[in-house]
Amino acid sequence: MPAKRDNPFVPAWSEDQLDSRCPPEMEAPYFDDQLRAWVLSSHADILAAFRASSLWPAGPNEREAGEHPPDIDRLKMRWETIEALSPAQLRTWRERIVPEVDGLINSLPTGKPVELMDGYARPLCLSLAAMVTGISRGAAEGLREMARWVSASAAEPYDPAVRLGAKAANAELRGCFHSGPEPLRDSGFVALSQTLPCLLGNAWFALLQHPQEWSLLHQQPELTEQAIEELLRYAGLARILFRTVTEDLDLNGFSIRKGERIILRIVAANRDPERFSDPHRLDVTRRDGGHFTLGAGPHSCVAAGLIRMVATTLTHPLLQRFRSASLALPVRWQGGSGFRSPSGLWVSFNA
């Protein structure tokens, strides 16, 4: 079970984060009396949970379970979103963003420190968020600060001040988007403009910590798409996910009753030695997939294709132009029990 917590109602698996010196510990399913939730750690248990249809997203607190919309409405919204994110549409967005990617890549200096997040990742993700949600780049700039509050609350949902700011920002953001499937409106704007750069920051930090992998991808850029899958496994963003069971569920031999909550330790499952060989090593040539960074089964992320496209489109040029890179300054981390990421990446590139 997790170590003693300063606040007993806040999950504290300190090893379930990218900058931890200790690998995540696999545990048998157990009920945490303080968190009032079942805790799942292993790949097999979390896969069984993701395959179950009787799960619904929940808040970090038991009282936030909320109402579950009818399955038919949920499935309709999911398929509308998938259709809006068709391969043809992804290609169109990629073609539109590539000139901006090329412009920023060519502006990155060599031989002196550059802040990679503000100088590259965040402006590109903001442009993409404007494209996908159908607003102007100027409007996106104006909504960025509100989106930052919402993303910060997802990163640390137990901070009352951030929760209050996010609540107000959410209410205002909802009135700014009026077309497209619901997941590609205000929540999509937050995910693309704020959360996606955090995911990229984690992936690039991992590559900076493993210069031999960066060098290999520089020499063999055709491996980039495969490497993105490994980076999603090794350096994925979400530490834990909360779900509510909507009907009695038998999960690998233990019973969870309707209305009970479960906590999915995504980082732990992505490093499970029963599923992945040498799981704590970053290996961009790895071929054993099955990570949970983008969910799985009926609970897979509907924007998985979009996320992979953006990650590849932004990472490939970095690896192609620069033969090596190193951290110029120590990383400061932001976030908390939901997810953590570098607040900035000061990097020195070698052309």
Task: Describe the structure using short key phrases.
single chain, 351 residues, alpha+beta, Cytochrome p450, 5-stranded mixed beta sheet, 11 helices, 46% helix, globular
CATH level-two architecture: Orthogonal Bundle
Number of helices: 11
Low-confidence stretches: none
Radius of gyration: 20 Å
Largest sheet, described in full? 5 strands, mixed
Structure, described:
The protein is α+β, with helices and mostly antiparallel strands. The protein has a single domain (30-350), classed as Cytochrome P450 (Cytochrome p450, Orthogonal Bundle), CATH 1.10.630. Helix content is 46%, strand content 13%. The protein is built from 11 helices and 12 strands. It has helices spanning 43-51, 71-84, 87-107, 116-133, 137-155, 160-174, 186-209, 211-219, 224-235, 266-269, 304-321, and strands spanning 30-32, 37-40, 55-57, 114-115, 240-245, 249-251, 254-256, 261-265, 324-327, 333-335, 340-342, 346-350. It has a 5-stranded mixed β-sheet. A 3-stranded antiparallel β-sheet has the order 4-12-9. A hairpin with a 2-residue loop joins strand 6 and strand 7 (254-256). The longest helix has 24 residues, at 186-209. It is globular and about 55 Å long. The chain starts with 29 loop residues before the first strand and ends with a strand. The mean pLDDT is 90.
